[in-house]
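Fig. S4 source data, part A: sequence.
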Amino acid sequence: MKRILSLLLCLTVLVLTLASCGADEFEDGPAYSQKTDELGTVNVTLYIIKGDDMSDNAEDTVRRQILATTESELNTKLTVEYLTLAEYETKVTAAIAEKGVVVPVEEETDKAPSTEGAQHEGGAPEAPEAPEEEEEKPVPDGMIVLVHSSAFMDTISSTGKLVDISEYLATKSFGTLNNGQTIPTALLSAAKNADGKLLALPNNRVLGEYTYLSINKEVAMQQLKYSEDTLKSYNSYADTIKLRQDMEALGINPNLYVSVVPGTYATRYELEASGNFCKSIAVPTITRDDAFDSAFAIVNTGDDRVNERAMKIIYELNTNASLRNLLQFGVENTNYTVITEKDEVTDEIIYSNIILETDDDKYRMNYLYTGNVFVLDFCEEIGWNAERKEVGLAQNAEVIFKAN
């Protein structure tokens, strides 16, 4: 009996160990499927709008560095096709027409009856035909395009050549993009078609705008005798009307001291710095147009493995600060430098700022077009800093989608 119990205990430990290994393998599995790995190095082109002030030298330098970096780290040669805003739509639509493949429409069809075991007229069974060997086709180049407006999205989606990205977001490899934090749920909802398909993945950035009730603090607290707690309780248009009526009853012109102001997170600080009490009375909302002000779409190549490599690039531009910074700022110590300040006691970095070069190595991109802004390093010159990131994340947590 003791031997049987010992054997059962050993088997239990073995099962638990195997289960544990299986869980670890799931968590630490490959970033993309094994079929994509079998392809080896794949070429992918990213079509994007470049900034107005970019030197040819800087453009070539960064393009080469991005290609080398993605080849070594992602087994994918990413070539960036920098285009001006004026030429962008014409060249991209031409490229889609030339290289894109229409996505097959899935239709249910009746299954054809099997001919296996069919008989000839003489009664002898007919041997099944051997399948023909298909010629191995060359691997096509992948293609990612920046979407910069809902009108352009309508144009390229009407070709039927865009890949449904929602299928990727349901997988382990790319599911973190669908967690509501990397990209807000409202933003993904705004980009989806009525049938649930997601033909372009929107780039996360500070979204929408608030509506603020702005009150002159001195008048409200000294003349109207309102406490700060009373002012904090005002959170609607009805409260705004009541406040204006109270001022009029005292002979105070409310137009001088009370206003409803639309704006972003920055507006609030500007109003408060001017001696006003500021309270949000409406949260940010976004529409489909907002979603497609900046998004990446994958053009179908006819090879799902290549399409998935393109998705891997988009994933990295949403999660990988190194690649994101490279596309946005270029090569460190060539196109930009970094200045830092450290805590004298802990030696930790307490301030960091990117300084962009201005001469032959001048590299400029619109930071809203190059991926998820929240993984980008700080650069005061483009208006991106720690304060804006912190408040932007809080703002995006409150944003809601409003259908057009």
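Fig. S4 source data, part B ends here. The radius of gyration is 29 Å.
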